[in-house]
Amino acid sequence: MSSWPALTEALRAMDPGEFQLWLEPLTVAADEPSRLVLACPNAFHLAWVREHCLPRLKALAEELGLGCEIRLCLNTTPPALNKPSQIVNTAPHQLDLPNLASDRPRLNARFRFETFVVGAGNEFALAAARALARDEHFLSSSLYLVSDTGLGKSHLAQAVGHQAAGQRVAYLTAEDFANQMIAALRTKRMEAFKARFRQNCDLLLLEEVQFLAGKDKTQDELGYTLDALLDAGKRIVFTGSRPPERIKGLKPHLASRIGAGLTAPIAPPDQATRVRILEAMASQEGAAVGHEVLEYLAEHAPGDVRRLQAALVGLLAQGSLTRRPLDLRLAAEVLGSLRQDLRRLTPQKILAAVATAHGLEPAALTGKSRKQAITRPRNLALYLCRRHTEATFAELGRLFNRDHSTVIYGVDQVERALAGDPRLGQEVAFLEQRLGV
User: Fold this and answer.
1) Pick from 15, 21, 99, 165: most CB atoms within 10 A?
2) Which is higher by pLDDT, 222 or 432?
3) Nearest to 114 by CA among 280, 323, 304
4) Is residue 87 part of a domain?
5) What does the alpha-carbon distance between residue 431 and residue 47 come to, in Å, rounded to a whole number?
6) Are residues 300 and 413 in the same domain?
7) Residue 235's domain is classified under what CATH number?
8) Comparing C-alpha atoms, which of 341, 355, 425, 433 is closest to residue 389?
9) Neighbours of 17 (CB within 10 A)
10) What is the pLDDT of residue 340?
11) Are residues 351 and 305 in the same domain?
């Protein structure tokens, strides 16, 4: 009698969400009367199932009278035959979309002009994005938004896309563009690929152009695409972590095309803008927080805008759980805890913990490999380092043997994926639990 079908039926009825995330990807390596061996797609998945699901599996097997020993192992099937476990879906999107207007791009519904908090450091970028969205050609038909991660360039780029209702919008990262081009070459569908962007597109939103560094053929194809779009009077929004002429490995002709339009840098928010950001966050949470408390958080919360959010979330959680007022005293305690976490954790500890959880040596994450099994945990480690330490992008670049833009891109990949990947959210929570934060 097979044990796994009976177990899966009972498990799916108990918790459909957890079953889909963690148990459905398992495959049966052996299903015998005395033992059941389940293969996990990767080392991290195995660690999670062993810690969170295996005791329940064993108890359920006993309740059902199956009388079999349950063990876990790693799936040794070649990766191409497995379901991919990825931070983001890097598989090419459909290349033969007949009408981009009928297939709306994956824009974040929250990233609109009306939800963007304006301040001294971003008011020019906001004005430029609004002008381009209104198709005011007296400025430029292309816009390059440049900033460090977490300062709003993706928000503005997608806000332009939201305002282009009824038009054919293509929104993708530079990595998406490269992957789609590679797939088109392999499947001999380059003409469809070219037509999608050169003929069937009114507005191109291309994020994180620094990813193209060193990819000469992709840069050439993008250059031809940009020429076709600009010659036809179409609009383009680029985002990146640094000016195009400062992206090492970007060809001069492509850097010139990207930089030929309007460049709008976004600076870190000043104190007044930080307060307004916190006010907007509190309003979204439906929480009433005093202005002096928000000012205190804005002044003393360490790091970037995401740490502002962490401080506010910590304040609201503490107040809710302990039924204490959201006052300056509680704010000081929350910030003190955040600073202790930052001092206690180091990037080296995070690197080692993430590597161990994925069954790797730390040296693998700092090496040159670009395999998915390495880049995924590497990006997770970079994200956790930025979230829980005060290490700069430059310091993380030295630790992980990566340049500044690659570190920013890796962190941004995780942040983007968290919005739509519950399994990744649980993975981050699991790692944070291991790290004690």
Assistant:
1) 21
2) 222
3) 280
4) no
5) 11
6) no
7) 3.40.50.300
8) 341
9) 9
10) 64
11) no
Tokens of 134: 């209104």
14 falls in which pLDDT band (50, 70, 90)?
low
Structure token pair of residue 299: 């002044």
Res. 365 pLDDT band, cuts 50 70 90: very high
Residue 431 neighbours by CB under 8 Å, 6+ apart? 353, 354, 357, 380, 384
Distances in whole angstroms, Cα of residue 264 to Cα of each of 121, 136, 213:
10, 16, 21
Question: Which residues constitute the domain of residue 379?
Answer: 347-435
Q: How many separate domains does the chain show?
A: 4
Percent over 70 (pLDDT), the chain: 86
Residue 371, domain CATH: 1.10.1750.10
Using left for φ > 0, alpha for ψ between -120 and 50, and beta otherwise, residue 207 falls in beta
In-domain check, residue 91: no
Least confident of 61-75, 114-128, 271-285: 61-75
Mean pLDDT, residues 268-276 taken together:
88
- The secondary structure of the chain in percent helix, strand, coil, rounded to multiples of 5, reads 55, 10, 35
32: DSSP letter: -
Structure tokens at 231: 């010659």
Tell me the β-bridge partners of 405: none
The pTM score is 0.61
Q: How far is CA 132 from CA 162, 165, 200, 214, 359, in A?
A: 12, 14, 19, 30, 48
Q: In this structure, which amino acid lies at residue 281?
A: M
CA–CA gap between residue 400 and residue 61 (Å, rounded): 44
Q: Residue 89: inside a domain, yes or no?
A: no
Strand partners, 42: none
Residue whose token pair is 């003929």: 199
Q: Which of 100-109, 144-153, 177-186 has the lowest mean pLDDT?
A: 100-109
CA distances from 29 to 21, 38, 404 (A): 19, 6, 43
Lowest-confidence pick of 43-57, 70-84, 110-124: 70-84
